[in-house]
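Q: Study each token:
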Amino acid sequence: MKTKTLELNLEKAREWYNGGNESLKELALQAYTIEELQPFRKIKTFEDACKVLNLDIPKIFTIYYNINTISKATAAMFVLDIVRKALHKFIKIEDSDNTSTDLIFIPLIFVIKVGPNIKAASKDRQDFYSKYYSIIGNMSINDCHYEIYGNSATSSKARDLHNIGNSFALFDCATKEIAKHLSYYFGTYIAMAIYGGIIGKNVEVTSI
């Protein structure tokens, strides 16, 4: 039986892996590691994202801190915009999960109220999310305290954004895996972007 060797460069392997064909995805995995096929997985901090985009880190951080003194929510959006660009640097959008439809993939976070005086229903929700999702941070709005859960994503057709909430749609990604990654490692920035601008409230968010 004759055998043939298939030469597969990294760029083509990434196209196969991120496309919708499971057979091509398996071939790509035989040739390269998941880290090589999905380099976005190395981006776990704001600094990582800046390095991937070859940005001047001291200058970018100075801009971030200056914005943060005016608006925490706007500063968080500034971070998320850079991070999303970095996460998508090595993927061709035309080869992503949403090429054949108008699907978009959206990172989700869940904010659950905690404390000694929460109702039983809130405690049940906390137990549920702690079982199925990853706690990524904490948030306080004045005297109320919350846990932030991430590592989740959903998809929706662009024309149906009203079904998922326009706030999360601001952070759409090319693939579900990128969206989940954004939710897990940068979900606290998403929380601040959404809640940080509440008028008359002191909002604080910390990562775990």
User: Anything to note?
Assistant: The mean pLDDT is 86. The beta strands are 103-114, 134-141, 144-157, 203-207. The chain is about 45% helix and 20% strand. The chain has one domain: 38-207.
